[in-house]
Amino acid sequence: MNSFIRRASIVAGATSVALVVGAGAASAHVSVVAPGAEQGGYTVLTFRVPTESDTAATTSLRVELPDLNSARTQPIPGWTATVDKNGDGLATAVTWTAQPGSEVGPGQFQQFLLSAGPLPEEDTVSFPAVQTYDDGQVVEWTEETTGSEEPEHPAPMLSLAAASGSEHGGHGAATTSETSTEASSTSSSDNTARWIAGVALVLGALGAALGLGAAIRGRRS
């Protein structure tokens, strides 16, 4: 699981950087990306949070979660993270808060990573968010996108691919593959051993025949 989280974090970070470079300042909304995220699977969610204000800095971000079994934050220097859970122990929200001096200033953005799952078995999942500035301004990114027009403060949305089964069956598949490989290797070794034994018998018989022939010729001479 830890190796999966590390690989997913690297992929998510690289993709987020690419999106930032490609989009530039055209999109200043709070957004979420998770390359390869599947329905019912685990992934690393990357929330990209730009500061839209020209005079104030972002001091906190709160994101609502769809009742997840697992929600683990990645440490960010100068920021604290709190995961809220309901009575059933499911994660319902996560809040990142900046310590003094670590706010996201005007013209800057920050990325918040969350290892989460299993994701809902739906085509899309919404993560309503609330962004707070140090001047007291609060921006609610909670509006749903309907049709072709995007609202002023859309909620971060993530599209999910259909479940491939690799998340749940990967370990079993690996075990089966390893067992098959071991069986093939064992069979190959057995065949090789039999072949070598057969050659040894032939050479032994040939050696014995040659020795017997030499003995007979020696007696005749």
Automatic annotation (TrEMBL):
It comes from the Bacteria. Coiled coil: none annotated. Residues 29-160 form the YncI copper-binding domain. Residues 173-189 have a biased composition (Low complexity). It holds the Pfam family DUF1775. Residues 1-23 form the signal peptide. This is Nuclear export factor GLE1. It comes from Rhodococcoides kyotonense.
